[in-house]
Amino acid sequence: MLQNIHLTLPLEEPVVIFTLVLLIILVVPIILGRFRIPGIVGLILAGVIFGPNGFHILSRDASIELFGTVGLLYIMFQAGLEIDMIDFKKYKVRSLVFGTFTFIIPMILGTLTFFYLHGYDIKPAILLASMFAPHTLLAYPIISRLGLSKNEAVTLTIGGTLITDTAVLFVLAVIINSTQGQTNAGFWVWMIAQMALFVGVVLWIFPKISKWMFKQLESEKGAQYIFVLTVVFAAAFLSEVAGMEAIIGAFLAGLALNPLIPHASALMNRVEFVGNNIFIPFFLISTGMLVDLKVLFTDTNAMLIAGTIVVLAPAAKYAAAWITQKIFKFSALQRNLIFGLSSAHAAATLAVVLAGYDIGILGESALNGAVILILVSSMISSFSTEKVGRKLAILESRRKPDISQKPDRILVPIGNPKTIENLIDLSVMLKNPTHKEPIYPLAVVIDNEHAEEEIYKKNKMLQEAIKHASATDNDVHLVSKIDINVSSGILRAIKELMITEVVLGWNAKITTRDRIFGTVLDNLLENTEQMILVCKIIQPLNTTGRLIVIVPTNAELERGFMRWIRSVKLLSTQVGAPIVFRGRRRTLNKLKSVVNKTKPTVEAEYSPYSNLNEFATMDSELQSDDMVIVISARKRTVSYNSNMDYIPRVLSRNYKNNSFIVIYPEQYPVYQNVPLKPNSYSGTVDNGEEI
Fold it and tell me: Which parts pass through the membrane (predicted)?
C-alpha cells in the first residue's frame, strides 16, 4: 500500500494535500498568535511560502481555487448575514456617503497618477486606479470574533463595500465593452435591466422560497445548511449572468437570508463554524499563492507600479475614512476601524486586473503589482483591525450596563419531548448575548415508588435538549427534581438556581377545572416573582413575520418593564421580525421612548387600542406567520385587571393558527387590602382599564 504513494513536489496526492492545508490552518495562527500577529496574515504568508512562487510544495490547482472561491464568497455572505438590518437601513445614507468617497478618491488619485506620472493611456490608467478603489472585507472574521459586527462603523463600512465594489465592476464592464465597441444605447439598457432583474430575484424571490423551505426542513438540520449554500452559490451565479462579480451575489444572498437565520441559532453556528475554520482559511492561503516576491527584484516596471499602488491605496482609503469621520462625528477609533476594514484588496482587485490583462489593456507588470498589493493591503488591514478592534471592544465592555442587562438564568421545564427544540431555541434567543450563563432544562418526577425509573426516562429525554443546544454553542445544565408535585419541583429549582426567567410550553387546552392555564402554571404564577413565559410555538421561529405585542395599561410601572422589553427586542432581532405594539396611548408613549433609547435597535410600530374586545377579534388581521405576544400580570399587581384572566381562553379559541407567548414580567405583589398611593409610582394607577 505504501509503495503506491509517490511524494513528489508539488504534492499531487489529494489526501496529503488536504492534510498539509489543514495543518497550516491549525498551526500557523497558533504560532503567530504568540507574537500577536493576526492569523489572517499568517495564512496568506503560508500561501506565499508553500505556493508555486515559494517552495512550490503546493500548486494552485483546481481544488485549491475551488475552496478559495468558496471562502471568498463565504466572507461576503457572512458580512451580509451578520449585518444589523435595522441599523443598515438607518445608516444607509451614511453608507452611501462613505461608499462614494471610498470609490471616487482612489479613482481620481489613481487615474491622475498613472496618466500623468507613469504615462499610461486613459483606459489603462482608469483600470489601474480601479484596482485599489474596491476593497474586500478580509478582516471581517476579526470583527465578528470581537463582537463588533453591530458597531455603526462596521455597518457603514459593509454598506460602503457594496457600493464601491459595484461601482468599480460597473466601470470595468464599461471599459471592456467600449474596447470591444459595444457602448450604444442598447448596451446600457440591457446592462441596467439585467442588474435590476438580478437584484429583484435575490432580494424578493429568494427570501420567499427560503421561508417555505425552512418550514419544510424544520427537523432536517443538515438539509437546512445545504440549502443555505445552494442559495449563496445560486445568487453568485446569477450575479455573473447579470454581468457582475459573484461576490455581489453572495453579499446580497446574505442580506436576503438575514431575517431567516437567527444569530443565536444552530444554523448560524454551522454557517460560521464551517466558514471560519475551513473555507475562509483556504481562500487566504490561495490568495498568498498568487504572490511572487521575486518579481520585485526582476521587473522594474512591476516594482514601480506596486510601489505606487502600495502607497496610494492606503492613503486614499484613509482619506475616505477621515472625511467620513469628520462628517458624521465618529470617534478616532471608529475612523481607524473603518480604515482597517476597507484597506484590504483581493476579490474585485483580482477581477479588474485579470479582465484588463485578458483584453490586452494591462500587462504582466500590472498583474504582479496587483498581487503585491493584495499581500501588503491584507497585512495592513489585519494588523490595523486587530489593534483597533481590541481597543474598541474593551471600551464597549466597560460601559455601564442597564439594569435589564443582568445575567439571564433561564429554566426550561420539559414535559413534552416534542416541544424541547422550540423551547430551547426560544430560550437561546432570549438570552443576553453578553453573558455566558447556561440554560437549565428541568425534569420533575413525582416522589413515589416509580421515581427512580421515571428520573432515568426523563434524563434520557433531556439528552435531546443537550444535543440541540450544543449545536447553538450554548451551555446546558440538566436539572432533575423529585418532589411531591410538578409545581413544587419547579419552584424549588427556581430558588436553588436563582432563576430569572422560566420558559414553559402550553398545549392551549383549557378544561372547566382550570382557573387560567392549569394547576401547575397557576401555582407558579401565585408563588413566584420571576418573569414567566408561557409559549405555544407551532412554526419555525426563524420564519416569523411580525411580533404583535399586546401591552396592558400601567405596564410601565412594573419592576420587570425594562426586562420584558429587552426580551421582546432580542427576539425581534434574532428572528428578523418587526414589532407591532398595541396598547393605550399613554402606555405606548412611554414604551416608544424606552424602545428608541435602548439596544438593540428594532423596527417597531405603535397602534392604540380601546379595550379587550379588539384583542378577541384581532385574529382576522393576522397572517399565519405572525406571533402574538401578550404582556399579562399576576393578580394584585399594578397592571393587573380581571379581564386578563380571559386571555388564555381567547388565545386557545381564536389563535389556533398562530404561535403565541404570554409574558408575566417580574412584579412586586400589591395586595388588594392595601390602598395604592398615586405618588408611589411614576405614573397614574388605573386598574379599571381593560388591556
Answer: 15-33, 40-58, 64-83, 95-118, 124-143, 155-175, 187-206, 222-238, 244-261, 273-291, 303-324, 336-359
